[in-house]
Amino acid sequence: MRNSDNIGTVSAVIPGKSLVRVMIGKRESNWMLLLSVDASPFNRTWKPIRKGEQVSVFGGLDSGFAIRGMFHDECQEPDGA
Questions:
Q1: Distance (Å, rounded) from C-alpha 65 to C-alpha 62?
Q2: pTM of the full predicted structure?
């Protein structure tokens, strides 16, 4: 994990919902929204998230939201990226 106050690891997921809990250090967040790439009436994209994935948290652990898709030492960019 990168050394940052807003980067954490998904600790719990509600299947079928865009809600996750995130651990940053020894603190766990409340349930927070996981942002999606597309969420409009014209196009929707959803990929399930799993425990252990790294996310960035904006707005704090009590009332923030999570953004996924960060590459890191244990999950590096694919060849040619």
A1: 9
A2: 0.77
